[in-house]
């Protein structure tokens, strides 16, 4: 049996089971939801099991409460295939008042009319993503994001070299890839994209969608990864790629579908104003849930990434944002980005629940650190301190080797040393 590698959401799930009756783990397919949930469950149902489909259909139609029978906590894997289980769980928790009774996992959001009640106060949610570099044991975790937020001194040396970073981006954070030898580990993301386009975009809600057009949309998002690309640009890209126009409502449906499948994520623009009178951009940045999907969608090879380091920098940013989102969720923080109409930008703004915040620039190479430091310094100097606290930290997150705190207080952190 393959050894379970602990996930950062483990402690979040444990905590939620202590104070709520049920926990729903959401996230894209293959990110490890079921494996993680089984570490906590004492019994489970896998609704995707074809051998039991007739039995499940019969129970669903006659007495759904039978699904709940079993040792607790009880896991319902891919619960959205039988949405009635949601209302059965909610009612059972209402009657018993017990905590930590059920765990649900889902790789797609169910249709809104498939459940009767929201589950508020009975069922809480957490979002799971593919593995961060710390979870895949590639980051040594010598630097804690929490320490940075609190202004503590740090030091660390990454064990990931440039080739290792390229490998991590191509392979992605898919847990199963860590159990595969040789170049086959890099094929999982390609299979994922094929499955997404051939099956998932149709089965998510039963709507027939054009695979070629969805592929063109996914390609446009990938080409513009880690930017606040407009829908007009995506439409123009699709027209060029597909030699046919896609309507705005169709594009909206395709983007919503990718979001329902937890593939597409939006990084919102911050509402933080500087002293400058320049208006802020308000459109979100587009990120895919894992950098390997960008590479697989565009069919890029290792030499393509090495020969175009500018674009590889955007893919690196996508990987860093994946990890930052995982670490931020664990400490109850949220992420946004800053950009004004003059295109002055900071890659990431992190805000904690207790009001601390900081600015992060993401740069692949050590040679870019001075420009990133200059940008962060300019940003800090223009924060309107009459309206906002000064930032608790400024950080350059990089693919370079060393992590340290500079004399001016700005952190330089290697992604290969970072953890929550």
Report on the structure:
The chain is about 35% helix and about 20% strand. With about 425 residues, the chain is an alpha/beta fold. The chain has two domains: about 10-125, Rossmann fold, CATH 3.40.50; about 145-420, no CATH class. It has a seven-stranded mixed beta sheet, sandwiched between helices. Helix 8 (about 210-225) packs across helix 9 (about 230-240). It is globular. The model has no long low-confidence stretch (mean pLDDT about 95). It comes from Candidatus Onthousia excrementipullorum. This is ATP-binding protein. GO terms for molecular function: ATP binding.
- What is the element string, with H for helices and E for strands? HEHEHEHEEEHEHHHHHEEHHHEEEHEEEE
Estimated helix fraction = 25-40%
Largest beta-sheet characterization: 7 strands, mixed
Widest sheet: strand order? 7-14-15-13-12-11-10
What Rg do the Cα atoms give? 22 Å
Termini Cα gap: 28 Å
Number of helices: 14
In percent terms, what proportion of residues is strand? 15-25%
* Molecular shape: globular
Mean pLDDT, to the nearest integer, reads 94
* Derived structural class: alpha/beta
Number of strands: 16
Number of domains: 2
Protein name: ATP-binding protein
Pfam family, one: DUF4143
Keywords: ATP-binding, Nucleotide-binding
Domain DUF4143: 206-364
Topology, pairings included?
Blueprint: H1 9-19, E1 22-26, H2 33-38, E2 43-46, H3 53-62, E3 74-77, H4 84-96, E4 102-106, E5 123-127, E6 143-144, H5 145-149, E7 155-157, H6 162-171, H7 188-203, H8 211-223, H9 231-242, H10 248-260, E8 264-267, E9 285-288, H11 291-297, H12 302-307, H13 309-330, E10 333-339, E11 345-352, E12 357-363, H14 369-381, E13 393-398, E14 402-405, E15 411-414, E16 418-419
Helix pairs in contact: 6-11, 7-11, 8-9, 8-11
């Amino acid at each position: 049996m393959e050894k379970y590698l602990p996930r950062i959401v483990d402690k979040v799930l444990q905590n939620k089971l202590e104070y709520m009756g049920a926990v729903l783990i959401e996230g894209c397919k293959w990110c490890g939801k079921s494996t993680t949930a089984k570490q906590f469950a004492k019994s489970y149902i896998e609704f995707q099991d074809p051998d039991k489909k007739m039995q499940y259909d019969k129970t669903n139609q006659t007495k759904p409460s039978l699904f709940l029978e079993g040792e607790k906590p009880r896991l319902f894997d891919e619960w959205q295939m039988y949405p009635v289980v949601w209302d059965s769980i909610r009612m059972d928790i209402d009657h018993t008042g017990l905590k930590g009774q059920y765990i649900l996992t889902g790789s797609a959001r169910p249709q809104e009319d498939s459940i009767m009640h929201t589950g508020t106060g009975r069922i809480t949610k957490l979002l799971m993503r593919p593995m961060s570099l710390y979870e895949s044991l590639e980051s040594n975790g010598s630097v804690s994001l929490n320490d940075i937020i609190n202004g503590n001194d740090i030091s660390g040396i990454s064990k990931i070299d440039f080739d290792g970073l390229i490998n991590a981006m191509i392979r992605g954070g898919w847990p199963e890839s860590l159990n595969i030898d040789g170049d086959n580990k890099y094929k999982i993301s390609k299979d994922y994209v094929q499955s997404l386009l051939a099956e998932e975009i149709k089965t998510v809600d039963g709507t027939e969608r054009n695979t070629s057009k969805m592929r063109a949309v996914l390609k446009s998002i990938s080409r513009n990864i880690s930017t606040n690309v407009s829908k007009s640009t995506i439409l123009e890209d699709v027209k060029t790629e597909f030699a046919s126009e896609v309507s705005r409502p169709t594009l909206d449906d395709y983007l919503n579908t990718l979001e329902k499948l937890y593939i597409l994520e939006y990084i919102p623009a911050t509402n933080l104003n500087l002293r400058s009178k320049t208006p802020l951009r308000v459109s979100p940045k587009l990120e895919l849930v894992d950098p390997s999907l960008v590479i697989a969608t565009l069919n890029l090879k290792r030499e393509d990434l090495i020969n175009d380091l500018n674009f590889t920098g955007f893919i690196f940013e996508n990987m860093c944002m994946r990890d930052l989102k995982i670490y931020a969720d664990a400490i109850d923080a949220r992420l946004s980005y800053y950009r004004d109409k003059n295109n002055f930008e900071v890659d990431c703004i992190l805000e904690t629940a207790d009001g601390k915040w900081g600015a992060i620039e993401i740069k692949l190479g050590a040679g870019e650190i001075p420009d990133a430091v200059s940008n962060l310094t300019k940003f800090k100097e223009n924060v309107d301190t009459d309206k906002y606290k000064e930032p608790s930290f400024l950080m350059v997150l990089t693919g370079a080797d060393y992590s340290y705190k500079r004399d001016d207080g700005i952190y330089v952190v290697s992604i290969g040393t970072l953890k929550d």
